[in-house]
Amino acid sequence: MFGSVSLIAPLASTVFMPLATLLIYLGLFALIFFSSGILAFVAAPFSFLTALTAKGIIEGVKGLANVSGFYLHIGNRYGLLCLAVILLLLTVIIIKKPGGKAKAAFAICAAAVIISGAVFNYAKYNDAVTVAVVNEGEESCVILIKNDEASVISLGGYNETAALSVLNENNVRKLRTLNLLSNTHDVTYAARSILKEYEAERLNISEEVFVDAKMRESFGNAVIQSFEDVKNYDALSNVRVDIEDGGFESEIFGNRLIIETGEAPKASAEILVTNNMQSKVISSFTVLQTSDIIEAEVFDGAFIAACERGVTYIDIFADGKLELRRGS
């Protein structure tokens, strides 16, 4: 099941489906007149209008694609209810083919569902901190999200656009920090794809990473610092991340979070994210970022394997409670 649904998709369908139909008719008339020979000159205006309509659709789609903030999580009951109501309304419209007033009423109902879904989504997750664990291979890829801001803690995996998709689908508008720790093609490509859409406030770059001219152009006005010189930093509002041996640590609403990217020393935490099956960290809850689950009983407490080619979300609320959900 998908972890979220675009709330702007119904608007896109409403606007562009009639234009697509118009495009077909214009193209058809242009083809007919052009093929007739004697009336070929009549095809010119139709060809022009066809190109103009196609250009308008392309630019409109690009514009809506760049709009963030319109995704509804369906990992909860209310999100599923909103999706079910929207699909029901669309089904009724397709089957019954109502007239003008009835169609307008259906459109108003759909808009009300979308707006109420967005309001509920905001109310539920406002000020909560989300730990997004992207499972794209054996490398660590973890993002911290709060409201409309995010920090990329670790960036790895064979799907170079997976982290960018997480930012888009969680309505992120501000990228506080991006840690660039590896010089592999997958990591550098993923970083460029993120920085193409988001201007980071801060970049922590490892000395191992070779920064070429093309990469440097994507940095924009970000504050650049050597990762090896950083001990801690503000990843989000009121969320500070400490850089420790073998990974990262943070205290979030009374829950100690350890993100193990190497081999961390013995420690204890409420939440552990790791790709190390022999981790020395004892945690109440562990997300295993690996497909090599053989000796899972070595972990004390509850654990879960990050979903294959998907995202595991851990929502941490102000009262200290945790909520687990899956994403695509």
Give an overview of the whole structure.
The chain is an alpha/beta fold. It folds into 3 domains: 7-67; 69-125; 129-327, Metallo-beta-lactamase, Chain A. The protein is 38% helix and 28% strand. The strands form 3 sheets. An 8-stranded mixed beta sheet has the order 8-7-6-5-4-3-16-17, covered by helices on one side. Strands 9-10-11-12-13-14-15 form a 7-stranded mixed beta sheet, with no helix packed on it. A two-stranded antiparallel ribbon has the order 1-2. Helix 7 links the parallel strand 7 and strand 8. Residues 293-299 have low confidence and may be disordered.
Summarize this structure briefly.
This protein has 328 residues and is of the alpha/beta class. The chain contains seven helices and 17 strands.
How would you describe this structure in keywords?
7-stranded mixed β-sheet; 3 domains; 7 helices; alpha/beta; 328 residues; Metallo-beta-lactamase, Chain A; 8-stranded mixed β-sheet; globular
